[in-house]
Design a protein that fits this description.
Helix content is about 45%, strand content about 5%. By secondary structure, the protein is mainly alpha-helical. The chain has 11 helices and 4 strands; from the N terminus they run αβααβαββααααααα. It has a 4-stranded mixed β-sheet with strand order 2-1-3-4, covered by helices on one side. The chain starts with 14 loop residues before the first helix and ends in a 6-residue tail after the last helix.
């Protein structure tokens, strides 16, 4: 199958200089897929959108791993692959050809973004861990609970909202929007409930620095603009002072602004169109 014309064979926008700076061979190698701007939503037919978004797109899951590498300032090589013509080098490491695939210094491969991210945090605890250390097993478990919430609740609801095409069998756009907003509100509410959440620090549970839970959701948060651009009624999160605004949504806005302003998030992002 020929790749859709909307796929970019190289990084675009702010991500391009970062990709260009990580072409030298290194002990850690990140295999990533070609870039797929969300601006394709405007011009692609429904069948192609369903094909590309029926599962979690690789660009977001790659960005998760990329963010961890950047936050830890680890040396790595970034290799972009054509998802429609996967190179033999990738298939030898990972017969399923999935991205992200990380090659470790021992030459062994790992995939599944959350697994890779936790490996990097365990293998490279400096300059700082992104999850609580094992001496605080409860705090680490709580973070994993919310990482699971991101992967099993927020991300699927995001894509149901994104893919939605109105038919009598599928219900209403308002319904899928409401489902997605409920997941975001649950996440923001948890930040208020966790110890220290919402009391100065913008990060999950009031951490002093961005952590693993924040990074698991960041790649989808920076793509929320697509709903305001292409969905009737937009995303639907109330702005400050609008009807429906409260402390939970205020906490969400605080967190989203911090994520979107983070250097690692900005520099691993592609052009929208």
């Amino acid at each position: 199958m020929a790749p859709p014309r909307t796929l970019h064979p190289t990084a675009t926008g702010p991500a391009k200089p970062l990709v260009d700076a990580h072409q030298t061979p290194q002990p850690l190698v990140l295999y990533a897929g070609w870039f797929c701007p969300f601006g394709m939503y405007q011009t692609s037919p429904p069948w192609l959108l369903f094909s590309l978004y029926s599962h979690t797109p690789p660009q977001q899951t790659v960005q998760r791993v990329w963010l961890v590498l950047e936050e830890k300032q680890l040396p790595y090589q970034y290799i972009e692959v054509n998802p429609y013509a996967k190179p033999a080098s990738l298939l030898r490491l990972n017969p399923r050809g999935l991205v992200p695939t990380l090659v470790t210094p021992a030459g062994r491969a790992l995939y599944e973004s959350s697994v890779v991210c936790e490996y990097l945090d365990d293998a490279y605890p400096s300059p700082r861990p992104l999850l609580p250390r094992n001496d605080d097993a409860y705090a680490k478990a709580r973070c994993r609970l919310w990482m699971d919430y991101v992967g099993t609740r927020i991300v699927p609801a995001f894509h149901r909202f994104l893919q939605f095409q109105p038919t009598p069998e599928k219900g209403s756009l308002q319904g899928v929007r409401g489902e997605f907003l409920d997941t975001l509100r649950g996440f923001a509410g948890a930040m208020l409930e966790e110890e220290g959440g919402g009391k100065g620090s913008p990060w999950f549970a009031g951490g002093e620095e961005i952590g693993m839970v924040d990074l698991m959701l960041a790649p989808w948060v920076v793509r929320l603009w697509v709903f305001d651009r292409y969905k009737e009624g937009g995303l639907g999160v109330p702005a400050e002072g609008e009807e429906g605004d409260d402390e939970v949504w205020a906490r969400w806005r605080m967190w989203r602004e911090a994520v979107e302003g983070r250097r690692s998030v900005r520099e691993t992002g592609s052009e929208r169109e």
